[in-house]
Design a protein that fits this description.
The structure is a single chain. By secondary structure, this protein is mainly alpha-helical. Helix 13 runs antiparallel to helix 14, helix 13 packs parallel to helix 16 and helix 17 packs antiparallel against helix 18. It has one domain: MFS general substrate transporter like domains (Growth Hormone, Chain: A), CATH 1.20.1250.
Length: 413
């Protein structure tokens, strides 16, 4: 981390956003699938319905967030709305969501999906795209700032694993508490150019013009945009289902006592995200060297390896090692997506590209496929389901080798 970043006020505020958001999210989200299955008692098919509904609601908010944030550029109105939803997450999960899932499953799913999506499931993409734009305008790499997001997630997961075994409600209240810090940071932060201690001035790019609605919607007429979307659905969607819907319960099934499984999974997940945080600093240099396309393909290859090895191995220690592959895949994929978008499309549309092109594409896949994968799991079990997912991701990876763009030049308008 260079001296200019250390002295960059905007970098530290950006890091504050990320560390508090991801810590608040981790406190309830890292054990969400386990909570739904072990505490609420949902079946694999019902889990699929919950994830499909969450993803459907997230699509709406990602479209809304992406388009509005591109119009606002570095305005904070949307972030403020999201932060208020975050504040309410604890009481909502305890007093509204849990009772409804137990007593009226469909109503619980319908009410829970928009709340969870507005605050967190879509909110993660919103805050990532907001901070990535701040990083381009105020002279620092997004990766070192995103490091703090991964660090916050890891630290919170470590605590969440212990508390979940005591009472999941403690996790939910803590999530609201951390969200209050996020809300405060958002109230205080005003992105601006400042002189550094060494007499230099932050390297601030010329403020971009505000894109028109026709420019935003022109993305949907581009062939390379839809090829990018196809790649995202065929890789990240299947991987998300594997990682969030299936793997947590798969991993804890290796333990005789559920509480031991929750605690060890929390420790492992925490360690994995600490590694992920370190990779957030190193990966930008790797992507700049090989290009965004090759980095995306490399990330997809890591997905294939992790899913297929989970189907093959039956030793908890080896499975734990395979879980750590996620620490490489996540930084590669997230940072490469931003760099691919800026290199191949109008940089002013980065929020729309990230929230719609990447996150909505992923969620479309999850909406369509979660229920199907849940049914497949109920009939065949983990091993067969994992093999099927790995095979699909590998086929899409092969196709993307020929369809993704190799353009390494930033699109200027």
């Amino acid at each position: 981390m260079n001296i200019d970043i250390i002295q960059n006020r905007n970098y530290w505020f950006s890091s504050g956003y990320l560390v508090t958001f991801y810590a608040a999210w981790s406190l309830w989200w890292s054990f969400y699938a386990i909570w739904l299955k072990s505490q609420i008692g949902l079946s694999g098919e019902q889990l699929g319905v919950v994830y499909s509904a969450n993803s459907a609601a997230a699509m709406f908010f990602m479209i809304f967030y992406g388009i509005i944030q591109d119009k606002l550029q570095i305005g904070k109105a949307v972030i403020t709305f999201q932060s208020i939803i975050m504040l309410l997450i604890g009481p909502f999960l305890i007093y509204v969501y849990e009772p409804l899932l137990r007593n009226d499953f469909i109503l619980g799913v319908c009410i829970g999906a928009p709340v969870l999506s507005a605050g967190f499931i879509s909110g993660c993409a919103l805050i990532d795209s907001f901070i990535e734009r701040i990083s381009r305008l105020f002279g620092f790499e997004f990766g070192p700032a995103r490091f703090w997001g991964s660090f916050g997630y890891a630290a919170a997961t470590f605590v969440a694993g212990i508390l979940f075994g005591i009472n999941p409600h403690i996790n939910f209240w803590m999530a609201s508490g951390v969200a209050a810090i996020y809300f405060t940071i958002n109230l205080v932060f005003k992105p601006k150019q400042e002189s550094l201690a060494n007499g230099k001035t932050q390297a601030v790019m010329e403020k971009p013009s505000i894109p028109t609605m026709s420019e935003i919607f022109s993305l949907f007429g581009m062939k390379k945009f839809w090829l990018f979307v196809f790649f995202i659905i065929g890789t990240n969607s299947f991987y998300t289902i594997y990682d969030q819907q299936l793997f947590p319960n798969f991993y804890t099934s290796f333990f005789d006592k559920p509480e031991s499984g929750y605690q060890v999974y929390g420790y492992l997940n925490s360690f994995q995200v600490f590694l992920e945080a370190a990779c957030m600093i190193l990966v930008p240099y790797f992507i700049n060297k090989i290009g965004a396309k090759k980095a995306l393909l490399a990330a997809a290859l890591v997905m294939v390896c992790r899913i297929s090895l989970s189907a093959t191995l039956d030793n908890v220690y080896l499975i734990s090692l395979v879980k750590l592959f996620h620490a490489i895949e996540t930084p590669l994929f997230i940072l490469a997506v931003f760099k691919y978008a800026v290199a191949n499309f109008d940089a002013r549309l980065s929020s729309t590209l990230y929230l719609v092109g990447f996150n909505i594409s992923s969620n479309v896949g999850v909406i369509v496929l979660s229920w199907i994968v849940g049914k497949l799991f109920d009939k065949t079990g983990y091993s067969t389901t994992f093999y099927v997912l790995a095979a699909i991701v590998f086929v899409i990876l092969f196709i993307a080798t020929f369809t993704l763009s190799d353009n390494k030049q930033k699109t200027e308008k």
